[in-house]
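Section 3.1: Structural characterization of target chains.
Under the original work plan, the team committed to producing a structural model for every single-chain target entering the pipeline before any wet-lab resources were allocated. The record below documents one such target. The sequence was received from the expression subgroup and is listed exactly as submitted; it comprises 202 residues.
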Amino acid sequence: MSLYSTGTRVLAAAAWAFCAFFALNLVLTGTAAAVWHFLPSLALVAWTVHLLLWRPRLVVRAEGLTVVNILREHRIPFGALKAVRVAQSVSLDTTAGRIASWGAPGAGRLGPRLGGHAGGHSGGRPGSGRRVPAPSHTQAAVDAAWNAWGRSARDSAFTAGEHDAGAPSPDGATQAVATRWDVRNGVVGLVLLALVALGAAT
């Protein structure tokens, strides 16, 4: 499951539509020199929109989370996750430190939406009539996957304990945060930037 801000995706689509319109108009009505001068710039703008608005997201999987930011990815197994902080932005406390997710939707400017009455399933005192904040979509999705992983880990540990009490967990070595740079996107951006500079110089 991918969690991302719908608003930024809409802005990205609108920006791409403008870039496509101007690029098409340039190709159909412009001279070869104009195309050489301005088309790389439009491509660079479209690529920048992809990196800033479309690419960032939080991917929730059964075994953990993947934070996809502009040029970096953080793979966080649930065994390395300590806490999820959802406010206007989303950050994850891990064994490797705090990692911010630039694309995951936060709770909004006014905080989490209100849930049901506290006397219901939300866990308050019966009849109190108070309303408690309901978790954001991001918090709910992460909590559901995290809880499911926890139940599966406990069941696996219990089953392993029945066969070999005291044996170390085979997954212990994999519960570490892995961070990598997205070299491909960086190279594409550098190539487009070089084309823009070359077009401006000629």
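The two ends are 46 Å apart (CA to CA).
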